[in-house]
Amino acid sequence: DGRRWYNPPEPRTLLPAEDRLLTLARNAPIQGGRRLSYEVMLDSSAADALFFAGAPELLWTSLPAVIREPNESFRPATPVTGILRYGVHAFLPDPVAPGALPPRPVPYEVLACCRDLPPLDPRIPALARQLAQGFTSAHACALAIERYLRANYRYTTKLPDKAPADPLAWFLFEGREGHCEYFASAMAVLLRAVGIPSRLITGFQGGVYNPVSGWHVLRASDAHAWVEAYLPAIGWTAFDPTPPDPRPHPA
After folding, report:
1. Per residue in 136-149, pLDDT tens?
2. What is the pLDDT of residues 20-33, one digit of tens each?
3. Which of 9, 154, 194, 208 has the most Cβ atoms closer than 10 angstroms to its Cβ?
């Protein structure tokens, strides 16, 4: 709506667990990859959503049910206290070259929703057209927008004391610096402005592997936002326009 992202109010699906097991996906993948099984432990403060690596197919959980959102995300159907622990069997696809395989079909209404835009500062669509000029494929256009944001803007977590009236226009034409949500929002809107369906993705990136316990530890500081664009030759494809944090990190 020009200031925040939200999911349209669409019906949610309640998925009850049977003998602690839930089937989340039944269709076989149409591309190469591998399957992996893993276990997740979430602190209750972060347990308003279920986080997955890869596309989840089977879920082992003590939850009585989970809710499938219209955007294919999942969350507990009941409040969580303490530690939420669940097991996952998931499919991790290999990168697919454009045109190698047909993309998974996506309903028209989903693609239409992912082109929706609020009224924009006219400089934003003008910039999008400028960045897309000369490119004949959605993939090349998306890569150009990703490169432009990574090369011409700076990462920072320090923002103005007073929230700007138009956060995206402020980021693109005045502040020219921000955190990952600014970069991802900018790329998603620039893509939509030239007709490429896109959506903002939030989750975690990075983490630290503990060789003693065998667990990957992800903290709140590992939270991240990026973009998925729908490319006709590939399907939903991830892009990350956020440049590295220029501050040195402690060893």
Report:
1. 899 999 999 999 99
2. 999 998 665 556 78
3. 194
pLDDT of residue 234: 81
How many Cβ atoms from other residues are within 10 Å of residue 104's Cβ?
Answer: 12
Residue 213: per-residue pLDDT: 85
- Return the amino acid letter for 200: L
3-state secondary structure the chain: CCCCCCCCCCCCEEEECECCEEECCCCCCCCCEEEEEEEEEEEHHHCCCCCCCCEEEEEEECCCEEEECCCCCEEECCCCCCEEEEEEEEEEECCCCCCCCCCCCCCHHHHHHCCCCCCCCCHHHHHHHHHHCCCCCHHHHHHHHHHHHHHHCEECCCCCCCCCCCHHHHHHHHHCEECHHHHHHHHHHHHHHCCCCEEEEEEECCCEEECCCCEEECCHHHEEEEEEEEECCCEEEEECCCCCCCCCCCC
